[in-house]
């Protein structure tokens, strides 16, 4: 099987009418209680008794009560940054009570929280919480999910800045962000699991026991957030990702692939394209078999270039 490019004549996807990069919601427009909630959520799940003592609020009982009441709003926090300093939230008392903030879902699992769901992690440090979905059940759990698609509700045909910082909602379809991925893989060795499901309810996975993003770069962005995967394990999906190892990430507004044309534009997605792809998990959500060539959510070694998958998850945990 050859990689999906160049496109056959007449099969190139049109970009006319599709969404241009969406500007993330500015954090200054978010309710203060919602920001407070994002700042205090990990304290709450780590020390549930603190709600009654007020210790997490440093005596500011009213603010803490508001934060708890706003807790369900955590599920609406986008994967974009929600920095307390941007919002003017004072979190010094919380930091004193909750000095250990989780880097990833491995840390959360180690604290005894082993239920699938949305949690906060801190790959950039204590002042930048990032909502993430943790898979705590698959193959022993501890998976930090960085890409999730299941219904086509979120456009993944986006520009460089969105893919750098992340977009979507952690309780729905989302992308965690290339910078977050890089920071995570700098600190530990990770393995990658790619879970796939088609519209006939068949499932398969591919696993790579070595995964990193620009591990040796002085500037990960200048390095293109280069993908490295190795040590493939087949879970029925076949290996569609090794072909992409060593490649920079490309979007329609930042072409870093090896093909003469822009692979991201041709494939209606964004990925670590070479010339062009065997995997296009950020392509259009086309609902199964499609006539257009290689522009759906494709994993070629399992379903080929004319089948767009129903569900995908890309997730990492410490190796």
From TrEMBL:
Keyword Glycoprotein: yes
Subunit structure: Homodimer. Can also form higher oligomers. Interacts with FBN1, FBN2 and LOX. Interacts with COL1A1 in a Ca (2+)-dependent manner. Interacts with ELN in a Ca (2+)-dependent manner; this interaction promotes ELN self-assembly.
InterPro entries listed in its UniProt record: Fibrinogen-like_C (IPR036056), Fibrinogen_a/b/g_C_1 (IPR014716), Fibrinogen_a/b/g_C_dom (IPR002181), Fibrinogen_C-term_domain (IPR050373)
Function: Could be involved in calcium-dependent cell adhesion or intercellular interactions. May contribute to the elastic fiber assembly and/or maintenance.
A cellular component term, taken from the record's GO annotations: elastic fiber
Localization (cell): Secreted, Extracellular space, Extracellular matrix
GO biological-process terms attached to the record: cell adhesion
Biased composition (Pro residues): 1-11
PROSITE patterns in the cross-refs: FIBRINOGEN_C_2
Fibrinogen C-terminal domain mapped to chain residues: 96-319
Entry keyword set: Calcium, Cell adhesion, Extracellular matrix, Glycoprotein, Secreted, Signal
Main location class: secreted
Segments of this protein annotated with the region Disordered: 1-25
Name of the protein in question: Microfibril-associated glycoprotein 4
Keyword Transmembrane: no
């Amino acid at each position: 099987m050859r990689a999906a490019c160049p496109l056959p004549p007449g099969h190139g996807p049109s970009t006319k009418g599709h969404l241009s990069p969406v500007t993330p919601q500015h954090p200054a427009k978010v309710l203060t209680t919602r920001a407070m909630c994002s700042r205090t959520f990990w304290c709450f799940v780590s020390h549930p008794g603190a709600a009654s003592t007020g210790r997490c609020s440093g005596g500011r009982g009213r603010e803490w009560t508001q934060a708890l009441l706003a807790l369900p709003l955590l599920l609406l926090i986008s994967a974009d940054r929600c920095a307390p300093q941007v919002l003017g939230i004072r979190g010094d008392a919380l930091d004193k009570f909750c000095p250990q903030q989780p880097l990833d879902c491995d840390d959360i699992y180690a604290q005894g929280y082993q239920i699938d769901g949305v949690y906060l992690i801190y790959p950039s440090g204590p002042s930048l919480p990032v909502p993430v979905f943790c898979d705590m059940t698959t193959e022993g759990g501890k998976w930090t999910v960085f890409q999730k698609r299941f219904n086509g509700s979120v456009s993944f045909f986006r520009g460089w800045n969105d893919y750098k910082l992340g977009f979507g909602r952690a309780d729905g379809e989302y992308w965690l962000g290339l910078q977050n991925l890089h920071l995570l893989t700098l600190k530990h060795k990770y393995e990658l699991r790619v879970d796939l499901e088609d519209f006939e309810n068949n499932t398969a996975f591919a696993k790579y026991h070595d995964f990193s993003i620009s591990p040796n770069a002085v500037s990960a962005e200048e390095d293109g957030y280069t993908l490295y995967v190795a040590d493939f394990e087949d879970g029925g999906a076949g290996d569609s990702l090794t072909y992409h190892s060593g490649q920079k990430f490309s979007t329609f507004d930042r072409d870093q692939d090896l093909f003469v044309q822009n692979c991201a534009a041709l494939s209606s997605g964004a990925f670590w394209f070479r010339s062009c792809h065997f995997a296009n998990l950020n392509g259009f959500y086309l609902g199964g078999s499609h006539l257009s060539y290689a522009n759906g959510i494709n994993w070629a070694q399992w379903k080929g270039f004319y089948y767009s998958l129903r569900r995908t998850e890309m997730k990492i945990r410490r190796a």
